[in-house]
């Protein structure tokens, strides 16, 4: 450890409680990375700091500014873009102990939370009041609301209720120099000044540390109807999404799982779904219109070669639960990469075609799971480690193709997972030099010493 | 005209077509202000520039940078915060001739527009495809989409479909120095880099000129049911909003009009509504659940002292149409001021009480019309010009009270109209010095010479 690092930690320990500055090797290594699969191995941070209140975060940032010490904010580390990976000298600011629900105001339909609250825990707490917090990444039982805000997380219910940004009303943010600011408002509408709340939302810990959030809640729907639709092929399933939209049905959830993923579910849950079809749509209809929307879906697909779950059965609900809680492949190993493009809706069928062609050409395995109602696709590519002909190079080329094709079709390199480290090289494929420059200058404005999660996101 | 101004205009006329630089007195004066009621009289701009393409906007901004010439972007001038008021040397950049709908992509559910397209015109064009552009300020037949974006306009349908921000996917923006950048994405989801689209949305022409927007559309609802509810008092009407929410009903539109406003409608449309009650809620239920939501509303208010429009009648629909197209009092004269606070939902009844008390104390007339489903209230205060005891001072005090009380209750000074010039003095009541400073530094970053709508919004 350098003398700067020693001196920084000494100073830190003077101001923070003993138990909040941890240097245990195991804790350091557990906090050195997230679920993102990165070729470069992470190193250990010099310490992991576990604040229990905002003031401690301020004290940390004051010292970090004084010493020029990089600080990486961390929620649960479920990110899949390497957003919390440690590649150089850094302290991890682990916010998991700031996990109090500070206030639930049912009649205002808002909750006030610390950043370390787990998404699911908030939903359990507000359900008592007949309310829900809508954005539900598939990691909802693990990931923190602070992490959700910092990545502008999507989720299953976002098809109808919008992504995290649409539910964030106000944030308390500790700036790089330790100042604490409050941005946004407590009301659903409000346009006083620039939209700084949206600026911090999705900024992946590079502009400030979120230490408190005012979140919009919604009343739980009066009714929910789940339908599964088994299509002969992936293309037909994707086309089904268009048919549902044209029937003016707005599902709360509309997920796609392909044949290979169905097989994984079969294995995991001892089901036998893969026997009967190619790809599946899982739809949840909710609210006062749920029953009529279910009927409408059944009408749309009545004369088509589609197998629907029978009305009133719990089949589709179980499948959605599997999809929601399934870890799937997200903990990527070195021979598997999951992507996160979003595509204009009309192009999805063509995209799937070209994706399949690219996978075939590079002889890589392809499967797909998608928040397809929003055009957000998660293809996963994999190769056999002992295969001939440089499998990793082929994997890499297939992944790059998937991203290039998405961009050619007017899509984006990341629908919800964020840029982190993993997608940084692709950002210039999507955004112009001027836009990148503007983002860098906003970063410099807020973090002139480049100590907040340096090297990530932009 | 100063020699700088003469030389600036000479240079401008060299690069722009003749008809696009106008110095006609009438045009100058028409373009010197918006609907906002300001004590200081606006002056004429030195010219009004009417570009027909983005490149001309770039040329204008290049020259403006060279000469340090202030430029005020203008849509239709329907703003009510003095956002386009000319108080010093300035050119008006009038975008009304850049009014082409560039593309409608029904299967992507998006439209690409120039900034001068009138909100309603887009809705007419996309209705052919069964689609709508949801955010509908009451000025929708006059205001431009560029102006809507620049103010992050709200509207009637925003209760269910969100404000303008939620429908803006991508923007082309000409920066102060004339560079053209494209921010955002063509897809519903996307988190690549910082949310610059949200930063420009609502920035009231102070950070850049919007020259093209990609807007999200939605399918038109399959069904619409309108209900009017007449309550004995304003407080009971406001309380009714809570009851509707608790029944988990999500109206597309939920507007409040008070007794005085009902009387105005009576006069304007020769109706006789005011005879029968105190205040009115107007609700539109839409989508597959419309009929069931209408039933649910009728159940909620069945045993209460509320008069509902009879089922199947067109009464409520006509009232909503009146509310939507009524100019109301928005063209304020000097003895009348309309406000635009938003309040946490649970506090609305108390707010109305205190507002009435404040109006009574200052002996000013109070009425109210509201996007109440979102907690966004528009009280209007007025005095008789020839009244004794300095009516204008009393008017001023009542307005300030309304804003201070809103802030005390955790509300905001502006729900949707923006800060413009009129609310600038109140911004420090709501936001801390650090937040104001941060906004100013973002402004300096993007507009170092302070030539984009200087003195407005922040
Ligand atoms: C099984 C699984 C399913 C998933 N499903 C989805 C999904 O459906 N949708 C989706 O969007 N994502 C999904 N993800 C990705 C991930 O869960 C989300 O990105 C989530 O929001 C990360 O939350 P976290 O608490 O784990 O944050 P972390 O991984 O700890 O951090 C993520 C980023 O946020 C920053 N950060 C964290 N907390 C703060 C804070 N308080 N202040 C400032 N910056 C902070 C970090 O620096 C980092 O850049 C999934 C991941 C897994 C493993
Ligand atoms: C009868 C009436 C009803 C109204 N109802 C509502 C309502 O329900 N909800 C609501 O939110 N507002 C409402 N308003 C206010 C107003 O209509 C909105 O603010 C509207 O969005 C302004 O659009 P505009 O084209 O008239 O913009 P303008 O008034 O011309 O400009 C407004 C602001 O945007 C900037 N601007 C305009 N175009 C551009 C551009 N292309 N690039 C950059 N900056 C630009 C201007 O500089 C100015 O700061 C109402 C006004 C009236 C008169």
Number of domains of chain A: 4
Give the averaged pLDDT of chain A, no decimals.
94
Q: What are the distinct ligands in this entry? A: flavin-adenine dinucleotide
Low-confidence stretches of chain A: none
| CATH architecture level-2 label of the largest domain in chain A | 2-Layer Sandwich
Structural class determined from secondary elements of chain A: alpha+beta
What global shape of chain A is seen?
A: globular
Assembly of the depicted chains = homodimer
CATH class of the largest domain in chain A: Alpha Beta
Strand order of the largest sheet of chain A: 15-12-14-13-17-18-16
- In whole angstroms, the N-to-C terminal distance of chain A is 29 Å
Helix content of chain A: 25-40%
Most extensive interface: pair and counts?
A: A-B, 90 and 89 residues
Keywords (chains A, B): FAD, Flavoprotein, Oxidoreductase
Organism (chains A, B): Glutamicibacter halophytocola
InterPro entries (chains A, B): FAD-bd_oxidored_4_C, FAD-bd_PCMH, FAD-bd_PCMH-like_sf, FAD-bd_PCMH_sub2, FAD-linked_Oxase-like_C, FAD-linked_OxidoTrans_Type4, Oxid_FAD_bind_N, Vanillyl_alc_oxidase_C-sub2
Pfam families (chains A, B): FAD-oxidase_C (PF02913), FAD_binding_4 (PF01565)
């Amino acid at each position: 450890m350098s003398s700067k690092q020693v001196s920084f930690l000494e100073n830190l320990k003077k101001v923070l409680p003993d138990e909040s500055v941890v240097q245990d090797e195991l804790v350091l290594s557990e906090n050195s990375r997230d679920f993102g699969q990165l070729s470069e191995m992470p190193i250990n941070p010099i310490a992991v700091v576990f604040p229990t209140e905002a003031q401690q975060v301020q004290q940390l940032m004051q010292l970090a500014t004084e010493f020029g010490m990089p600080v990486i904010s961390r929620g649960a580390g479920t990110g899949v873009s390497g957003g919390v990976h440690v590649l150089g000298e850094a302290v991890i600011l682990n916010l998991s102990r700031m996990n109090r629900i500070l206030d639930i105001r049912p009649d205002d339909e808002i909750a006030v939370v610390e950043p370390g609250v787990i998404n699911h825990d908030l939903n359990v707490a507000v359900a008592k009041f007949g309310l829900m917090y809508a954005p539900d990444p598939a990691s909802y039982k693990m990931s923190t609301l602070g992490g959700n805000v910092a990545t502008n997380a999507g989720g299953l219910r976002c098809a109808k209720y919008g992504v995290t940004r649409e539910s964030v009303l106000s944030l308390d943010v500790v700036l790089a120099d330790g100042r604490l600011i409050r941005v946004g408002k407590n009301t659903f509408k409000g346009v006083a000044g620039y939209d700084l709340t949206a600026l911090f939302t999705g900024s992946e810990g590079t502009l400030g540390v979120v230490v408190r959030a005012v979140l919009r809640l919604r009343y739980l729907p009066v009714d929910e109807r789940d339908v599964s639709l088994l299509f002969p092929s992936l293309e037909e399933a994707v086309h089904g999404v268009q048919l549902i939209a044209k029937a003016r049905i707005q599902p709360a959830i509309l997920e796609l799982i392909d044949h290979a993923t169905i097989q994984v579910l079969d294995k995991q849950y001892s089901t036998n779904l893969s026997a009967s079809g190619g790809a599946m749509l899982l739809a949840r209809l909710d609210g006062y219109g749920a029953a009529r929307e279910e009927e409408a879906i059944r009408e749309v697909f009545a004369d088509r070669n589609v197998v629907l779950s029978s009305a009133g059965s719990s089949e589709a609900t179980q499948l959605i639960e599997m999809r929601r809680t399934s870890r799937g492949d997200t903990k990527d190993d070195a021979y598997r990469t999951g992507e996160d493009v979003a595509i204009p809706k009309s192009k999805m069928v063509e995209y799937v075609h070209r994706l399949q062609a690219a996978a075939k050409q590079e002889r890589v395995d392809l499967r797909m799971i998608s928040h397809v109602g929003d055009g957000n696709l998660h293809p996963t590519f994999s190769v056999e480690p002992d295969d001939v002909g440089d499998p990793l190079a082929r994997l890499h080329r297939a992944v790059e193709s998937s991203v290039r094709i998405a961009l050619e079709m007017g899509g984006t390199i990341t629908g919800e997972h964020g840029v982190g480290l993993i997608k940084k090289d692709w950002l210039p494929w999507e955004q112009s030099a001027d836009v990148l420059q503007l983002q860098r200058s906003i970063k410099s404005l807020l973090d002139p010493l480049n100590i907040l999660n340096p090297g990530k996101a932009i």
